[in-house]
C-alpha cells in the first residue's frame, strides 16, 4: 500500500468492504514537505478504493489557512535550536513526505454509508450531508494542503455563512487558540465575581496584529472583556483598533525601549493591571527573538505599580523546550500541577506555555461560527496564494518574516469554480 493509503487508512475503526455515500476521484493532488528544510514538492497520490471511517468524512478542500507552525515544519521551537542532529532526524524521519497544514474550509464530498457521520447523535458532532460547507482542523502531520482529505468530524463544524471559504480557512487554529486561552479564565472570573459579562477581565494581547493576535482581540471582546489592550508596531496601530482593541500600545516607540513600553502600558488607565495576557510573540526560536523579554517586562516586581494582577493568567504560544515538555504532560496526562511543581517563579501569576487541543473541538468551532455569523468575528486575510509548491514556499517565507498582518491562505478552488459546482 502506498503513501496515500497508509495515511488515509490508519484508523482502527475503518471497516473495509462498506460503500461510501458520495463520489470521490481516483487520486488526490497534494503538497508535501521535502527532505531539506524549507522545501516542498507536489505529489499525486492514489486514493484507496474503499474508506469507511465512521467518525471521518471526505472533504473537498477549497482553501487552506497557513500558520507559522506550518512554515517551521511543525517542530517550531519544541526542540532546542542547537540540537541540529535531532531536528534534522525529526525532519527527515517524521516530517518529510507528510502534508503541511492544519486549517481548511471545503465541502463534504463523501460520507460513510454506515456509521455516525450521516446524522448527529452526539452533542459535539455536527450533522452532515454531501455538499455541506464545513471548516475545521486536521491532526498534526495529516495535513490540509490536498485536494481531498479524510477529516475527523469532531474537529469540524459548518462553515459560517457570513464568511467565504478563504476567510473561513483562516479561522480554525487561531480561533481555537484564542478561545481555549481566554474562555475558561473569563468564565471563571464571571462565576467568581457574580458578574454576567466578565466585567473583571482586562485582557492584554502581545502581538495584536498577527494571525492569532488579531483574532484574539475579537474573541476577547465577544467573551465580554472589560478592556482589550493590544501591543503592536506603529504601522499596525490603526489595524488593532479596527479589530476592537480598547487601547493599542506601540512597542517601537522611542526606538523600542522597554521602559517606554512599560510606561505606555501603565498609561492605559483602567485596563492596567491586566488579568489575562495572551503572548503571541515570545518564542525560543532564534528566528523569533525579540530585543527584550515580554515575560520579564510584564512580570517585573515593581512596588510602585505592577502591570499584572497578582492572580493574572499568562499564556505564551512559544517558549523553551522544557516548557513544551510541561505543556505536553498537561495536555496528554491532564496534570496541571506540572507547572506548579516543576518551575520556580518569584511571581504568583499563572504562567504557562499553551499547546492547542484539537480533538473534540466541534462545539468551540460552532461558538466561533456564531460569532462570525453575528458579524462579531472576521479574520483578516492579507494574502491569498495559489495551490503550488512554489507559492506555498513563498507563503512560508512571509510567515517566517513575522510581518504578516492577519492571515495567509492558499486557495485551491476559486470562487467562480465553486459557483459552477
TrEMBL record:
Gene Ontology terms, MF aspect: oxidoreductase activity
SUPFAM superfamilies according to UniProt: GroES-like, NAD(P)-binding Rossmann-fold domains
Superkingdom to which the source organism belongs: Eukaryota
Matching InterPro entries: ADH-like_N, ER, GroES-like_sf, NAD(P)-bd_dom_sf, YIM1/Zinc_Alcohol_DH_Fams
All residue ranges annotated as the Enoyl reductase (ER) domain in the record: 38-410
Gene3D superfamilies assigned: Medium-chain alcohol dehydrogenases, catalytic domain, NAD(P)-binding Rossmann-like Domain
Pfam families: ADH_N, ADH_zinc_N_2
PANTHER family xref list: ALCOHOL DEHYDROGENASE RELATED, RETICULON-4-INTERACTING PROTEIN 1, MITOCHONDRIAL
Protein name per the record: Enoyl reductase (ER) domain-containing protein
Amino acid at each position: 500500500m502506498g503513501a496515500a493509503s497508509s495515511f488515509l487508512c490508519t484508523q482502527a475503526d475503518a471497516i473495509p468492504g462498506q460503500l461510501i455515500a458520495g463520489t470521490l476521484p481516483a487520486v488526490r493532488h497534494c503538497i508535501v514537505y521535502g527532505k531539506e528544510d524549507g522545501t516542498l514538492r507536489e505529489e499525486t497520490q492514489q486514493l484507496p478504493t474503499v474508506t469507511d471511517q465512521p467518525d471521518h468524512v471526505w472533504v473537498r478542500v477549497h482553501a487552506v489557512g497557513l500558520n507559522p507552525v506550518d512554515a517551521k515544519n511543525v517542530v517550531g521551537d519544541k526542540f532546542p535550536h542547537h540540537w541540529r542532529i535531532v531536528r534534522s532526524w525529526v525532519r527527515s524521519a517524521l516530517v518529510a513526505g507528510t502534508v503541511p497544514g492544519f486549517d481548511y474550509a471545503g465541502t463534504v464530498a463523501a460520507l460513510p454509508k454506515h456509521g455516525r457521520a450521516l446524522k448527529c447523535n452526539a452533542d459535539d458532532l455536527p450533522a452532515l450531508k454531501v455538499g455541506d460547507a464545513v471548516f475545521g482542523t486536521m491532526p498534526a502531520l495529516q495535513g490540509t494542503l490536498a485536494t481531498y482529505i479524510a477529516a475527523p468530524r469532531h474537529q469540524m463544524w459548518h462553515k459560517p455563512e457570513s464568511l467565504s471559504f478563504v476567510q473561513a480557512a483562516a479561522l480554525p487554529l487561531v480561533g481555537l487558540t484564542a478561545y481555549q486561552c481566554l474562555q475558561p479564565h473569563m468564565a471563571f472570573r464571571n462565576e467568581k465575581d457574580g458578574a454576567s459579562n466578565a466585567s473583571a477581565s482586562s485582557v492584554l494581547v502581545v502581538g495584536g496584529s498577527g494571525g492569532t493576535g488579531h483574532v484574539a482581540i475579537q474573541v476577547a471582546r465577544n467573551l465580554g472583556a472589560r478592556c482589550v489592550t493590544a501591543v503592536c508596531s506603529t504601522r499596525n496601530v490603526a489595524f488593532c483598533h479596527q479589530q476592537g482593541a480598547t487601547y493599542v500600545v506601540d512597542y517601537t516607540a522611542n526606538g523600542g525601549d522597554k521602559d517606554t513600553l512599560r510606561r505606555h502600558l501603565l498609561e492605559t488607565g483602567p485596563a492596567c493591571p491586566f488579568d489575562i495576557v495572551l503572548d503571541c510573540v515570545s518564542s525560543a526560536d532564534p528566528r523569533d527573538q525579540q530585543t527584550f523579554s515580554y515575560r520579564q517586562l510584564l512580570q517585573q516586581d515593581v512596588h510602585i505599580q505592577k502591570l499584572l494582577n497578582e492572580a493574572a493568567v499568562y499564556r505564551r504560544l512559544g517558549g523553551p523546550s522544557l516548557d513544551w515538555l510541561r505543556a505536553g504532560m498537561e495536555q496528554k496526562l491532564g496534570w496541571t500541577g506540572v507547572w506548579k511543581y516543576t518551575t520556580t517563579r518569584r511571581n504568583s501569576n499563572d504562567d504557562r506555555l499553551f499547546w492547542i487541543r484539537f480533538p473534540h473541538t466541534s462545539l468551540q468551532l460552532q461558538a466561533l461560527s456564531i460569532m462570525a455569523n453575528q458579524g462579531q468575528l472576521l479574520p483578516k486575510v492579507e494574502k491569498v496564494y495559489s495551490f503550488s509548491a512554489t507559492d506555498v514556499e513563498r507563503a512560508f517565507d512571509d510567515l517566517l518574516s513575522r510581518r504578516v498582518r492577519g492571515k495567509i491562505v492558499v486557495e485551491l478552488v476559486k470562487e467562480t469554480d465553486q459557483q459552477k459546482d
